[in-house]
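U., I forgot to send this yesterday:
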Amino acid sequence: MIFFDFNCNLTAEQTLARLQTVFGDRVPCKTTICHWFTEFKRDRVNLSDEFRSDCPSTALNNKNIDTVRCMIETDRYLIYHGIRALLGIGMSQIQSILHKHLAMKKLRSWWIPYNMIEAHKTDRVTWCNAMLIRFKEGMSNLV
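Result:
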């Protein structure tokens, strides 16, 4: 309706009055209507949201991604606040690095890769077999 009133050469105040007549208290504030009138005067006719990236491009760089990768390889129990303290970037950027770029997820306080490479799978099978041998030989009842 704001766009329609703008095209009918009404002012922002007239548009606000018309909206209040129809919708009562559930209308946008005058500042919002003035903002849209300004946008329409700049020939913005696309009413969809403009593209915004997930996080600043400065936070998602190869240096930060490699640093986080090394930190996870060194300490699988690492928490977000530890990464944040070292790199000085926001939680959303850390989450993007861990989940999108490194394909990691946290399982029982451990960071593990979503898509394990063959070497990871082999290491896990070897470890499981070693634990089974310890259990069968009576060295440990805990598995």
